[in-house]
Fold:
Amino acid sequence: MAEQETSRTSHQARNNAPNRSQSEGQGSASRSRGGSGGGRRRGRGGRNRGQRQDDSAQVPEGRGNAPQTGPADATIAAQTIAAPESSGFSRGRRNWRGNRGGSRGQGNQGRGVFSMGPQRTFGGRLTTTDQPTEIAQDASLSANAPEFVPGQPVSQRSAQQHPSSTPQPTGQGRSRNRTRNRNQDRPRQEVPKSTASELWQRIQEDIANWNYECRICTEEVTRKTEVWSCTTCWTVVHLECAHQWWDTSMKVNEESGDKSWRCPGCNSTLIEGPGDSSCWCGKETQPSRNSILPPHSCGQTCSKPRSTCSHPCTLQCHPGPCPPCTHSQRKNCRDTDYYNGWSCRERCGDFLPCGQHECPQTCHPGVCGTCEVPVEAKCYCGRVQKEMLCSKQEDIRDSFDLASNSWFEGSFSCESACGRTFDCGVHRCQISCHPQEEVSAHCPFSPDVVTHCPCGKTPLKELMDEPRQTCENNVPHCERICEKKLECGHLCQSLCHTGECDPCTQTMEIDCRCGRVMGETICHEGNVQHPLCFKICQATRNCGRHRCGEHCCPGEKKASQRIAQQKKQRLGPDLLPVEAEHICVAVCGRPLKCGSHFCEQLCHRGACQSCPEAIWEEVSCNCGQTVLHPPQPCGTRQPSCTNQCQRQTACGHPSVDHQCHPDDVSCPPCTYLVQKRCICGKTTFHNKPCHLQEAHCGEQCGQKLSCGLHTCKKLCHRPGECGDAQNGCEQICGKPKLLCNHPCQSVCHGQTPCKESTACQVKMSTSCACGNHKQSFKCLASTSNPTPSRPDIRCDEECERLDRNRRLAAALNIDPASHTNDHIPFSDNTLKLYKQMQSWGDAQESQFRVFAANKDEVRLRYEPMKNQSRQFLHLLAEDFGFESKSEDYDIHRSVLVWKSDKFVSAPTKTLAQCVKIRATQAAEAAAAAAIRPPSPPILETEPFNALVLTEPRFGLTIEEVNAALEPDLTSLQGFRFKVDFLNEEVLIKASVSYSAFLTPAPMEKSLEILKPRIEQTIRREKLAESVLLCHSDANGAISRREVTIRAGTGGWSAVAGRAASRPMSSSSTPAPEEAKPGRKLLLGLKKKRPQQPEGGKVWAALDGDVEC
Structure:
């Protein structure tokens, strides 16, 4: 190993020192065989076989004894070095290799350069002897560009102002900051734009004639510039301009994170970036610039698939859309191969990736694959020559054969040691098979190469008295530590030595695979193998169905961070990417909707996709008159058929007429009337439908049970299904007990005597002497306690009061049972609120009466409730004689009720009774008003307090009305609006907080101001036909509305309309509160005037909570 290392070091020193000056004096003819440093490219996906290992800027050493070239050859060499690609090495169907003959080293021509007449010279590219005298200035934008002055010529920038003129590394075959010299090779004669019928022909001809303009920079698109084409509008722009456009117009979707940009030609949205330079069909990157081929074309068949048929494009690689298919092949549907597509059955003939051989396969989809043609190949050192597949060859490199003193091409390495002697004639090269040079390499052990000890820290002149004379002299070692960097990153701790360093023995900390456990171990020498801990990963995989379950999972920490981020940001399970360790690779396996196949995709979230299989049979309805022809998706149900069903009923009766239906849907039941007998056999029914399986008479069975004491109480049933059929008689015994004579409450025990040892649980009741107070208790008689104690109830003050009332009624000759009065102990506001929530009001009244009857309870606290409910409790407490107040704020506000000194007893009448009495009084008043002549109407009208939308749109909802009118309704400060449907109209009723302090006139004036805005909105949104002002009573009925005066109407029609819109007179009686909206009101009764609130009781007029 020391000899190899020293040999390699000596060879590098020799190439860097003495041969540098010699290589600088060589002409361009001695650069390489092809005339370009890049070598020869081969077809689609070919390899750079002539590319050298070192891509440095120095010129390699020539192989011939050619003298120095003249200025013309130097110019050709400069062009060869500057050109990134050579037109002589096209990727087309021809392999431009040139003559590999014996012109090497003869005359003043370099190897691989041939003269073909006095006008042209073929080297690394096609050139002419006439060179441009001026170098075109950079046309790209620059910050130090001279100022443009209108009317004056544009000043040229000097060479110092063009830093881009210096050669820049190409990087991945494309330089976005490369200078484009677009004025070079411009045709001397102006050619008009193409008028070809096809778009791809016009694009090719315009680019070739310098008539195609870039949409971004407005400069010409030529065959030497890298281009990009849109797949939607087929606009062609410079690739550099497309990348700049992509950088400036790219947008990122905030929800999905996808990037998109706009096409500079058609402004359509694109997802993929411009990418690298390629030919029109995309088979080759960095296509050839050969003038024989169309611009930016690889010369191969386009072969792009068509969406309308299975035939690919047969034209040569071209821009723009592919022309329509010209094949006229016609096949039957049953002969169509839906999986493999159509094939012309001809030989493919496309070039393989090697660029030398054609594809021998029959017309096939996809790529042609690797080249399997056998060729004769020779290794780099020239010792092994064998036949191998073309695709198995490595890069073709030029190598020198010492035996025949000639050059040859090597294409693989035989992996054996080179064995060629260095220039010293003593040592041999130990490197594996590699390309050979014509001159032997310098010995790596020579004194001019080895100047330090093996560790490189001490010069040899400090270790030796006399310098080394030959390469065979030993190299002394110093006493220092080697400290060479090992593969693991540590430094070698051995003393200065030759050969490989000893293995590293230092200790290091290493964590387990999941990163939770740390430990010390000997250095792994760069190959770190993390140990496994015993922790089992519980993270859920991306499918959401399975857990990881792996020991020491490396993705557990990432999973915990991902879950924490999801909880913190409240994200869904699919919004964050799942780590690779937790991607479920199991097959889903769930049944698909078709019911015949299972999901074969990887385990996933959500519902499975539709079944990809197809049905190749006809799918018909049951009657066979409606047919779906194949192919059909798997799981296709039977088609709907409008013909009559042809199935026959099982009973044989005529079937009900109905449409044809699938097999999983049963026919309608048979409705033919027949005679049936009930299942118990007691009754026979006539005219029962046939589909009725069992008929029941509904009578009790009545048969004696096995206990001999009870009869079956089950309704009509089948024989043998009586109550004791399974577990015996399960009825209550009912026999009288001997001690208390109460019926036995145990389960029937037959003829055995009842169990007297257990206490009797029958409930009994006792009362006081007057019968006012009663109390229930259990009997509890048993053999151990035959005479249990009974509660003793005596009369109290209440009994005395009732007795006094009875005696007083007897003295006044009044019958308390039949005596009634019309007194209502509740206020009108209480009854009004009670009618709005009767069921809830009955429950609260019952609770108040229980609270009033219990002398021990003093306070009654309610849960938080709404304002209207609290108001009802306050009014009801005042009617009962209780005290009440509201506590807390906002949604926690509740009501507290307590007894005070003014409480005597609960009202004798209930709220429901009072409502009935009030309704009876209203009916009597209405009947009396009908007898009296009506009073003349007064001119006072009820003010408008609502808006009504006439003829609303079909399907209109309250949410749509609120959303459309919200900006207009909120413009009135202090008003609240409630939207409701009234018959076939929409009512918008307005209300104001603390309405007792606001007169109706300002509300009507505010609605008149709001009406035009509402009218414009409903016409714009097409919500209704029109809007009118109206008055709505407490029940929501419209008692008066605005009359619309149309053009051309008048006379009695207008009088009748105004009369119909007038409200009831002041003498009219209001309709009963339970009357339905829209019913006409009766006239004749005077309207009650609202009572004015007394001083200090303004809160009574508020329409809200008294404590608010």
Notes: The two ends are 100 Å apart (CA to CA). The chain has 15 helices and 30 strands. The CA atoms of residues 565 and 571 lie 8 Å apart.
